[in-house]
Amino acid sequence: MNRKSKYIYILSLLLFTSTALANVELEIDEDHDDVMRAVQQGQVQPFSSLQSKVNAQLRGRIIHVELEEDDNIWIYELKLIDPNNNIVRVKYDAQTLTILEIKGRGLENIIKVDQ
């Protein structure tokens, strides 16, 4: 597989449709070969899985996504805009899709509480 094909493959794994993410800025700080390998090995969940998790846990719209690796741990860093136009930053473990950190204004408006 050539370099361009690998890059396209990675993006297709991370992004499920261009229409749903038309206003989302995606930034991958790592080498695309490393990202592809991490996805294939289950170290990184596809973006579609992350988006489902975010929709279940949080109110707001994703406006920016970064995928980074540090000490062999992959992290999704998101920026969301809540219904009151506050920006909230959320870090997810890319393998387990567990929230590692959440900060910003109006967190009471963005976090969904189970009824």
From TrEMBL:
Residue span, PepSY domain: 51-102
The keyword Iron is assigned to this record: no
The answer to whether UniProt assigns keyword Signal to this entry is yes
Q: Where is the signal peptide?
A: 1-22
Keywords of this entry: Signal
- A Pfam family cross-referenced in the UniProt record is PepSY
Domain of life per record:
Bacteria
For this entry, the protein name equals PepSY domain-containing protein
